[in-house]
């Protein structure tokens, strides 16, 4: 499997060639610095061998011909210029997920920019204020375009090098493949849309089914996890290893071990962990996803090389990332709003459309007309990807501190994503959330009540939606305005 840094050297070759040389020079290996904040990215059809070297190729839609698209490395606080060319046969856009950027660069067709027509280009220009792990994907026909492969990672580098031996990226995704290797049709299945969404039968790590990931005893690794799936929630467990969470959705948190040792990743979420490789040389240790009851599988194995440990004792230095310049909401001057998630199969309740309330029950709302809504927020549904003249559900004065109480009244999980801002997660079901966690995508279990807060300092109309893409497309979406 190719390294995420240059797409050519294997991870094994990178370890052998780079670790000793760079560490001998006193520098962390694999800390590849961005040499430019300018990129040209082409969206087009391509082919990729997702399921393994002995399996048929898959027709995909890809950025620059690879799945995932090439890694975009930017520098914190420095202007970036990204030219996106559309060679697909349909409109597209790019959403720079999690980056606090100007509204006109947010990639929502109709709402923040005109769609990029086939054969045309669009220039995205912004200065990323935060270092961290982000990603990019379409926000036009997003269920199918993301489901056919259009996704890539963005790393915004800290101003100073972070003291690790290696900095690894795992962009995880799942696919629904036929025996022929082709992606199964049937996007926008109404029954799936009202339940858990389109979950695939093949899971890839950086665009391939992974058997092993080579590591070396004694090294300290920063592992950036990105869930680029349409709907699959993951709970990763590292056999006989103790990952420490150091950032969530690109924002540094208080370092802590995840609950029960499982790293929970909803669609679109990112988690940075530090792994001290204290396994035995020559051994393999499984990385297992066991989120769904009875459906656990091995994502990959950490395969230790036979080489002697990189160091004789684990590093004593704590790993704490520098904070990003996020404004803290003022508890004494916070305005509070309730947003209730409704709908779905087994959810009960009523549905709404852009024209107002739907008078029937849930099954009528879900199945009554083709393309009708299956989900709602506060009794109203917005379907699709975004378009002009979407009326905001809430309007905030710029600079105000805002608290949102998100209430999941459905029987399903929802990763709720807010564009243009990061939210401090204050409480879950009445219990304070520890470790100073900021997120742009908050995973909510059925019946959860989660309180988040942020300073509404980024002007414009911003999407708030579920990142199970079927749920977004079928109604679980709204607009918040900062004026």
From TrEMBL:
Boundaries of every Plastocyanin-like domain copy: 55-159, 169-288, 384-482
One Pfam family in the UniProt entry: Cu-oxidase_2
Sorted UniProt keywords: Metal-binding, Oxidoreductase, Plasmid
Domain of life: Bacteria
InterPro entries referenced in this protein's UniProt entry, alphabetically: Cu-oxidase-like_N, Cu-oxidase_2nd, Cu-oxidase_C, Cu-oxidase_fam, Cu_oxidase_CS, Cu_oxidase_Cu_BS, Cupredoxin, TAT_signal
Alphabetized PANTHER family for the sequence: MULTI-COPPER OXIDASE (PTHR11709), MULTICOPPER OXIDASE LPR1 (PTHR11709:SF2)
Protein name: Multicopper oxidase family protein
Taxonomic path: Bacteria, Pseudomonadati, Pseudomonadota, Alphaproteobacteria, Hyphomicrobiales
